[in-house]
Amino acid sequence: MRPTLLHLTITSLLATPVFAQANTTDTPTLPAIAVSGQLDSTPELNELLSRQGNSESGAVLRNFSGVDGQRLGGHGLDMIIRGQGQSAVNVLIDGGKIEGGCPNRMDPPTAYTELSSFDRIEIVKGVKSLQYGVGGTGGTVILHRDRPEFAPGQSIMGEAYIGTASNGLRENYGAEVTAGNDQVYIRLQGSYKDAENYRDGNGDEVRSSYRTTQGHIDLGWNPTANQHIKLSHEIANTADALFQGAGMDSPKSDGTMTRLSYEADELAGLVNGIEISVYRSEVDHVMNNFSLRPNSGTRNEVPSEVTTQGGKLRLTSNLGQTSVDYGVLLQTIEKQATLFNRSPGMQLNNSQFLMWPNTITEQNSLFVEANTALSNTQNLIYGVRVDRVRANARDANKAPDNNAPVPAPSNITREPVNLYNAAYTDYSGKSRINETNWNGLLRYEQSLNSNLAWFGGLSLTTRTADETERFMARADWTGNPDLNPERHAQVDLGISHTSAALNWSASVYYDRVTDYILRDQARNQDSANARPVMVNGVPNNTGINNIYVNIDAEIYGAEFDLSYLVNSRWLVGGHLAFTEGRNLTDGRNLSSMAPLNGQVFAEYAIDQGYAGLRANFATQQSQVNTLLNERETPAWSTLDFYAGYQINQTFSLQAGVDNLFDKAYFNHINRNDPTTGDTLDKINEPGRSVWAKLNARF
């Protein structure tokens, strides 16, 4: 039996489910989403969930310039910012982090979020602070939940919504309630989504269905007006997720996160502000090739467990015209994933490969960052952070149950260290790594007048190899424990204009990367550290194809955003983004780089509602990595229609049509992954979808 809205709401109140959103406006829009990749004065933008039918987190976030999402199925689009993804994109969920359980990234961090449960969403493109934690060289997504504000005499507020779509998202509903006062509060929310396989513009079915249940509870206390203590717990469970671009599906992907935070500001003495937070998240993920698809061959299954925990201590001192933030950042990630053969007649626990061989990565940091007001119109931001990294594959010398040589007739047995040694000519034999990485930031911001401002930034940051890049241990896909950390030297320049009617911003960036971590095919590494699959045209019998090597690279691009209020009725705008990446070691293009792309919209407002058209487009991408069998992508464009109407003070209705003309197309960075050597077409985006959503606020 599918849960009803009433059942879901009652369950939310009794069993710590679901999720949060605070919005006290009467207009039929959700909270504005700030894209603050550049200046603090960058205006907030109304790219809102109420203006598109697909509310999947990655699908929504890729509507912003410089941000894209790699589609593997219908759920868990993997974010890429300025041509970088995975651990190069930090995702902070109300101050905490969660790591996915799939080595193939079926479940990136955003797969465990529900965007409508947050009050503010900030997208930082590039590096504008060293306080967001390790990684994040491409950018950071910060999902905020604010303390609720109660009107005089108010003690309870809430919202419920229900939505549906004709192509993909069949059911989408949830409820939220916040009760309390200015000193204490409790917030409970719950949501449920049921998505079926969508059809592309050709009418072909794409394996993409899933079901999600998400939940969230906040307990807050304000001892004084300038102090806030919050304890929160969150669940995000996905069931029966199908993936067109993978050889497996995911019958189960469950995540939980618990956070405790304390904030105080306007304190007397040397320390004027304090932020203390701790968090712990756990993911239990299962993927296989038999429970959700026909399979008459080998039945493979990979259960995985991931624990992420950490904390932050930040102190603030105001020294004349300078505000100084300093403190520590702590993060520990533990991952374990094992490939089992579940074929009939096999023992239940017949392990084949220790894909994540019981890994642990600790990254603990000290930071100091200052903001000096040089004048009323000029700010200088500068800082340094040092990261101490310890990584260990604790089962690197352990054999799986099946330790037969791979591939026969070689003598390479399946202990992870043996696979590393087979893949890399100069493997050191280490499975325990220690690094000390330094990071620095210098950023100048100036207001030229009341409307115009510009900035220039220089950052030197590092990204250590993640657990897959360093320790993956499978016959055809092997990590490299000897990888050096990426070292990024980034230059960022931007200018923005803000006024009552016209807002625009433009930015350019260049990132020179030493020891860029490249996932490649071993046959391309004749002069590198990896053992080539072919030696003088003869197979070398390692069987290892996908490997990781360090190269030098450059990534550069530009972004432009515009919104113009023509009059009291008409709003027009759009954005453009361009990214290009080059492998400087051997002259190839970097793969999965989006071509010039963007959106243009026009919106008409009436007293109780609005209606708009949005054109989405991308140019042809011919700058591809042919040695990875990466395919060129033709140009495409689609048109969306959306509208909203405030029925009364309580109810509002939003509706629209995405991909109005049922265009068949695919995004360039969509999977199938070119590193697998798969020559199949990439996954098509959804065709036409008619959607509607009804909101009620009280």
> Class, according to the CATH hierarchy?
Mainly Beta
Question: What would you say the CATH architecture is?
Answer: Beta Barrel
- Structural category is mainly beta
Q: What is the H level of CATH, i.e. the homologous superfamily?
A: TonB-dependent receptor, beta-barrel domain
Helix content: under 10%
User: What percentage of amino acids are in beta strands?
Assistant: over 45%
Low-confidence stretches: 1-46, 673-679
Q: Report, as a whole number of angstroms, the end-to-end distance.
A: 29 Å
Which whole number gives the mean pLDDT? 89
Cα-atom Rg, whole angstroms? Answer: 25 Å
The shape is globular
Count of beta strands: 36
Largest pleated sheet: 22 strands, antiparallel, barrel
Tally of individual helices: 4
Q: What would the CATH topology be?
A: Maltoporin, Chain A
What number of structural domains do the residues give? 1
Question: Your description of this structure?
Answer:
The chain is mainly beta. The chain has a single domain, classed as Beta Barrel (Maltoporin, Chain A), CATH 2.40.170. Helix content is 4%, strand content 51%. It is built from four helices and 36 strands. A hairpin with a 7-residue loop joins strand 3 (67-70) and strand 4. The longest helix has 10 residues, at 5-14. The chain is globular and about 75 Å long. 49% of the residues are buried.
